[in-house]
């Protein structure tokens, strides 16, 4: 890899091209986040078991991302480059999964497809994070992650609203004979096509520079062949994590408990708290599902706009201060959903969640990139994902029990718990060391 000092300054459109694939990736994630609980419920899932079924998502990330990060660090092809082969393979598999998901005829099939879909999305997503560290010097890294956040936001806006858009076009929104509603089915079909097209745009338009010493790189590849060596390298890296990465781990833990609670329980919470139903086969519940899609579109849209504003604030304060402030705003907003029973007022807390989401997708990665060795950027970005998926696994194992036994089945109280966790994450941000900041004397 080229050293940070030798990396060229990229133009706006070069940043655009290298980040555009995230538009498609987030299309897949947004459809998954806004509709998976709805699909599971429609196919007969007990609300108490939703968090267990969602375990597929974090477990695949736990297994896939460090391996893909290691493999992409140790890949070089004169035409395809280092990261782009993984963009392509992940996009192909994710698109297939997006076409399969709404055709699930039984709950077990939907859970199995979630494993495939989330694993495939992780294959294409993880190298995108390392792509910024590969191509951009420190002065442009925050802008690079912000551009990714912009596309993540707009991809999620459109994808989250698709079921509502199709419903307004006259497409059936009620499940017939226990099948997935046509509004959701068509949304996933569109998502599969857009995912593939967006990722291929980046694959075909963004170039990668070869390692500084290509012969030495190839010699390392030849010396490092073998599954045993790869596993040793992957596991050994855990003992050599930079201190900044460990500090961010605590922040990520509480952040992603909050997000996982929101993704799993918002549909059921809004169904009960605003639409007065927990019956997944009812028209009211499916309308609640569409409304949650619009709510998620609001927070995603806000994040797309905030992505370019937050770096300006960070330059005048610090990345730590911005991230802390955004997480506190998001946590208070998520907590406030409990007190809202008017459908239209539900968009207000999503503004605060959107501000937090913009920072979550930008600031931790910008802080982390400055603390990682360039040769292992992909690997450590993959390991960093552990601090996203481990709290999701904890949530998957415990939130169902907590919702049932502590909150008497009222999912909206689980959202309140998520809000508290996000505020805690904000406070913990103050302990993070950002290498871009001067050390206090």
Automatic annotation (TrEMBL):
Q: Which Gene3D superfamilies match?
A: MFS general substrate transporter like domains (1.20.1250.20)
PANTHER family reported in the protein's UniProt record: SOLUTE CARRIER FAMILY 45 MEMBER 3 ISOFORM X1, SUGAR TRANSPORTER
Superkingdom:
Bacteria
Q: In which broad location class does this protein mainly occur, judging by the first location in its UniProt entry?
A: membrane
Spans through the membrane: 12-31, 51-72, 84-101, 107-125, 145-166, 186-204, 245-265, 292-314, 321-340, 346-367, 379-402, 414-432
Source species of the chain: Duganella aceris
Q: How does it sit in the membrane?
A: Multi-pass membrane protein
UniProt protein name: SLC45 family MFS transporter
Swiss-Prot/TrEMBL keywords: Membrane, Transmembrane, Transmembrane helix, Transport
The cross-references to InterPro entries, in alphabetical order and at most eight, read:
MFS, MFS_trans_sf
| Compartmental location | Membrane
